[in-house]
Each structure stands twice: as C-alpha cells, then as structure tokens.
Queue: 3 jobs
Job 1
Amino acid sequence: MYDRKDLPDLIRHILSNREPHLISDPPPNYKHAGVLIPLLFEDDMHKVIFTKRTDTVEHHKGQISFPGGATDDGDRSTEETALRESQEEIGLDPEDVDILGRIDDSFTVASSFIVHPYVGFVSRAPVFRISRVEVERVLKVPWNTLVRDYLENRTYTVESEGMIYETPAFEHNGDVIWGATARMMENFIEILNQK
C-alpha cells in the first residue's frame, strides 16, 4: 500500500479484479458526476492531484476536491466526463491519462450528486492550465501522506444547516481534504489495503 515504483500496475491489477459498488438506483433529484483521481510520479514519489475550488463555483466552494464534475448530455460515459472535466479545470490532457480502473461510487449530501470516481495515471508531467472560474490552485499530495492519514484515522468535524458531521480527513500543508473527496480517497486506500 505504501509508495512503490510499480504502484500504478498494482492499482490496475487490484481494480481489474474487483467489481466496484455502483449506485444504480439513486433518488430522482440526484445528478451524475465523474471525477478523476489523478496519480503521477514526481520527485521520486507518487502523488495524487487535487484542486482547491474557488469561492465562486456553485457547489463545494473553497473545498479540496478531485478534478471532475457533472455529466453533460454529450458525454458517452462518466469516465469521459471525468477526463473532459479534468481537461477543462486544470488542463490535463486525456491522452496523457491512463485509466487504471474505478473505485466505488460515492455521493454528495449537500449538492445531490452520484459521483463515479476513476483512477488514472498521468504519464507525462502535466502543464496545468487552470480554469480560474472553478479552480483556485492545484495540490499534489504525496501518496505516503494520504496513507499515513488514513492509518491514523484522521477526522474532520463540520457544521452545516444546524447539523454536525464527522468525516474522514486528510491534511497536507494546512489544507484539509474532507467530505465526499475524503470518503472516496479512504475507499481507494481501503480497496488497495484489502489485497
């Protein structure tokens, strides 16, 4: 589970040998979204790319998330959505992304999305072209940092509409990854940890 040179091959092997849990019958008000969990090898380590959303986007203002978004009518699949949105948000060329597989579907409570996450290995060092409307900045978090936080069972408490929620959390350089993004990251690490 810790960082190793063949991590992308290991991920592909594990994800190809399991069926992801899919949310096939969501409530009627839920929309579909595709996100990419982009993994790259840089500075002799694997890192996961996240985005910090701007305070002007419609959903999840200022939060840390994976690149991705709502499915458009022209998208043939949620995988295509994830790749298209990643290109629109941070300039990630779909030709440079090798999809390794998908993890379990997730959902967002506040914005009513069913999220379909895909893991992709970024084969070339990306040159980020950030959509300043959607993305404040890009974060590249070392794989080992994410695994460490997972093993330490970090949590984050948030208050929303008079309710208090506790969610898994990951932290990097003062940024806290929580909510649906943290749940997906936790699911990803758990899947790899089971093998």
Note: The chain has four helices and twelve strands.
Job 2
Amino acid sequence: MPHAAWPVDPAAIAPFLLAIVLIELTPGPNMGYLAGLSAVEGRRAGVVTIAGITAGLLVYMLASVAGLTEILRFNRPLYEVLRWAGVAYIFWLAFDAWRGEKPTDFQGEDGRAWIHFRRGLVANLLNPKAALFYVTLLPGFIQTGHASPTVQALILGGAHIAVSIAVHGAIVLSSDGLARRLILEGSSPRTRRLFAVALVATAIWIAVETGR
C-alpha cells in the first residue's frame, strides 16, 4: 500500500509511539497523584481521576488542532501564569490530603466521583507540559503527502491519549492492592499525610521542571 494512502506517515508511527510511551512512563505529577490517591481511596477514585486527566488531554488536543496552544509557546507571561497556577493547585491538593476530611453525607458517591474527575481535569489543564507536548512534539510527526494536518493531529493525539489511559490504568490497578493492605493495617491517616508530603514534592518538581 503506497505511503501516500496512509492518513499518517507509517514511518512516523513507531517513533511517535515510542516517544509517548517513554514520556508517560517518566515519573510526573499525574503518575504520583494517581498512585497516592488509589492507595488511599481505592481503584474507583483512581479510575474517575483518569477520566478527568483524559478529558484534560482531549481539551489540549482539540486546542492544538485549533492552533490555540501555539500561543503558550511564544507568550511567556501566560505560560508562567499557567505554570504557577498548576504548582499552587498541587499544593492545595496536598493541604486537602493532609486534613484528610471525609466527605459529608449529602455528598454521596456521585459527588465524590465528580470531585475526583474535576481534580484530574484541573490538574492536567494547569500542567503546561501537557499543552507543550502538542506544540513541540506532535507537529514534528505531521508530514505532507498524507491526510490533512488536522486529521493527522487527531490520529496522533488519539494515540497519545490511548497510551496515557493504559499507563495510568496500570498505575491505578497496581496501587489498589496497596490500598487494601493499608486499610487492613489501619494506617490510612498516616498514609494520607505521606500522600500530602509526596504532593508537596510533586509541586516543587513541577516548579523546577517546567521552568524554561
């Protein structure tokens, strides 16, 4: 089959997949947050948070197709606002985890699920690295002679989201076993505080790594 008949350059598929797998396997804020949350609150909380993170990636992918994320590349003040808002948000999550307050009765399971979804969404939207992925890496794999740049961006972005879900799902599933052990040992309050400390470290990591 001629390469021109492919919507995406087939020679670019393998290196792109390798790049995004390595990126997703690199320890980062989403990975640390999911592992800690699933260990403390279980698999359901982790899965709902993955949905929020995925929604954030979808927003950035669509913004990239529309050319909006390109603004971050050249607008340093806007980038800095987004970067420090993300750091502040992770610090707030750490404070909330340290308090360890249980949801009130009227909140219910659906209300709690919405909280986890919203936190995953906001945390990813406030992560400039997620936006810059679609500005710096993805365009390099879009080639002429194939489908339109919009279609190629949607296909490659969809592949990134699929890999992200797989990696994050593996983290949640592996951390859920730890959750059961922690509950049996009755160490949930201590674990929440360890989670809070880990989030503080994550916030510092974001502040350092996203500076450019």
Note: The chain has one domain: 29-209.
Job 3
Amino acid sequence: MQKSIAVLLTGALILSSCGSFRDSRVNPRNWFGRSDEVRREVEAETTNPLIPIDDKVSLTRKEKEDDTRVLLDSVTELRVDPTPTGAIIHATGLPTRQGAFDVILRPNEDADEGVLELEFLVNYPEFATVQGSEFSRSVRAAYSVSNFDLRDIRLIRVVSTNNARETRRR
C-alpha cells in the first residue's frame, strides 16, 4: 500500500512538472509569439531608384539582371515555425491587384542588430489585371533561418509598403 502511494505521488509530481516546460524558454515552440502589426514610417527618396548606382561591368563579372520586384502592398499574417535546424518564417500578404508572382522575402542588411528585417517583394504582370477579391490576391512566401543565425535574433519584422508585422522572442 505504501509503495503504491509513493509511486502514485512520484508520478503525479513528474507529470505536473511537464506543464512548466510548456511555458519555458527551453521549449522551441515558445521562441516567438504571435505577430503584431506596427506602423511604418515611409521616407521620401531623394535619388531616382530607376538609375543604377553601380553600372561598372568587368570581364570576370556578369552583368546583373534587373530586379523588377517591388514591395507588397500589405502584410496580413506572420508566423514562425521551429524546425530541427532553425526556423521557417511564413508571411502572407495582399498585393494591389491580381497576378502577382515571383514572391520573395529578402533580408534587409541595414536592419538593427538583433533584428531580422525581411522585405516582402513581388513582381506584377506587364499587362493590366483586375483588382479582384482579397482571397484571390493573397500571396505567401517563406524564409528559412538556421539555428546559428537565429541565436542572435530577438525580433523578426516583415516589411511592406503600407505596414509591417513583427514578432518577438519570448
């Protein structure tokens, strides 16, 4: 009788300690919380973005292809899923019209230390398309981050033209 009570109490104690692991910083599912929308200040450009800054081409370097992607209109969702090798950042956004393609999350090198800032970029068709419903315009992109890069990141921010979404490490 005493042995079964001792086993029962030990089992209950071990099981109750598992609940604290769920909320701990050790659990990878708790590294980043839900995303929040933040205001973005847009600065006026003093230079013409259509004129290339570096137009030098050498014999050993190929000529760079023009990247015609532009910032997406708005980011609607941001999610960070942990993986064994790091994390995958999923973003959903709304372009201004249907037909957006070549969607990418590109890191911004000018971001502050401890911040991973990703620009949500898309290409639009050269021909006119209708605006359509939000569901038909919705686009998604993902970006993979290794554990090595993730150790210094405290904030992940996805930037678009009209807004930005960010999530912080807990």
Note: Strands lie at 36-38, 70-71, 74-83, 86-94, 101-107, 115-123, 139-146, 155-159, 164-168.
